[in-house]
Write a structure and sequence with these properties.
Growth Hormone, Chain: A, 17 helices
């Protein structure tokens, strides 16, 4: 069930990249507005995730995940039936809130049920999220070429409906009782802010390539289908890296060597994008995908490592994801502004390359056995 839910959390974003040029042509949407289609959901995801305790108290685990998936169903259907700028922006908000509710609840659900296997299951959950993105980025331009981009944006209502139905029918209604101790807000600990910044910058690389990699390559003369295939290849590399993390992370009490290896791969991929984007397109996709695909689950796993129980781990994950997604939402907007005013996305890749150095310095502080302090 967790894998089925995870697959539905990125198609509404990943389908956009290969279709941006077509959407802008048909709707007269500017580059800045187009960037909001990715940034608004990510920003809403962050804001909603900042208070996971209230989300769980209001909706519960069973009802909350179901409600989040139903929001994705309605957002996709609205894009299918009324593909206008205002509807696209409004559904970006609705979809972002739906994703946020699910992602607010899932770490606590996993930690409370998986116990010592939490890191492994979190790895597979993160991989499912990236797998959904890979499917959408590959299929969307092909559906659009045959049936139009509105259908390519709206068809993702079907797997979301399937996920909501299965979750509601199969998930028991019994909520685990959270411990009453350790209720001090995790935001009072400096360590929490380090974890937030680390997750946010790593996720920023993901949102940046998700929004702007296909338009970057179509601007260099590549077809929309080929650019979508390149993004799909990148996300398949993310899936491979996520599976690798899920299988190997339990063997490493010190996560830092894996994290630094992931940052190195991402940096190398960004250099390929900046220096020789057409010649090294395949290497750029592979290396960026491996780096991002490993950093995403590792950012969550390291954050949850700091929790003393499922409840605190869930609060940490919510805070880290909440602020992290707000931070990650900024990068696609910066890239959109650069494209609109400079007609070039290369400076955005150089900016992310510099941020990789910051990530590496942060990673060195993530020693094993650390707790909030």
């Amino acid at each position: 069930m967790i894998l089925l839910v995870g697959i539905n959390l990125r198609p509404s974003l990943a389908a956009l990249g290969p279709l941006v040029d077509q959407i802008q042509r048909d709707t007269q949407m500017s580059d800045t507005q187009a960037s909001l289609l990715t940034s608004l959901p990510v920003l809403l995801m962050g804001l909603c995730l900042l208070d996971t305790g209230r989300v769980q108290a209001a909706l519960g685990q069973r009802g909350g995940v179901t409600a989040g998936l139903v929001a994705l169903v309605f957002a996709a259907l609205a894009r299918w039936l009324s593909p206008t700028v205002s509807v696209l922006l409004a559904t970006a908000v609705v979809g972002g809130m739906g994703i946020a509710v699910v992602q607010a609840l899932m770490p606590t659900i996993i930690r409370s049920r998986a116990g010592s296997q939490t890191a492994i299951l979190m790895g597979f959950y993160s991989t499912a999220i990236m797998g959904g993105a890979a499917l959408a980025s590959f299929a969307a331009p092909r559906i659009a070429s045959a049936q139009g981009w509105a259908l390519a944006m709206g068809i993702w209502a079907l797997p979301a409906l399937a996920g909501a139905t299965v979750w509601w029918r199969a998930m028991d209604a019994t909520e685990p009782v959270a411990p009453t101790e350790m209720q001090v807000s995790v935001s009072t600990y400096p360590r929490s802010w380090l974890l937030l910044a680390f997750f946010g910058l790593g996720t920023g690389a993901y949102t940046l390539v998700l929004a702007w990699l296909p338009p970057y390559y179509t601007g260099l003369g590549m077809s929309a289908q080929d650019a979508g295939s390149l993004l799909s290849a990148l996300t398949l590399a993310e899936v491979a890296a996520g599976i690798g993390v899920a299988m190997a992370v339990g063997r490493f009490s010190d996560r830092r060597p894996i994290i630094l290896l992931a940052i190195g791969a991402l940096t190398a991929g960004l250099l390929c994008l900046s220096l020789a984007p057409l010649l090294l397109a395949g290497y750029a996709a592979l290396l960026c995908g491996l780096g991002i695909g490993a950093l995403f689950p590792l950012g969550l796993i390291v954050a949850m490592d700091h929790g003393q129980d499922a409840a605190q781990a869930g609060r940490i994950a919510g805070f880290v994801q909440g602020g992290g997604y707000v931070l990650a939402a900024v990068l696609p907007v910066i890239a959109g502004l650069l494209r609109q005013h400079l007609s070039d996305l290369t400076p955005a890749w150089w900016l992310m390359t510099a941020l990789c150095l910051v990530l590496a310095l942060m990673a060195l502080r993530l020693r094993p056995g650390a707790r909030l302090s």
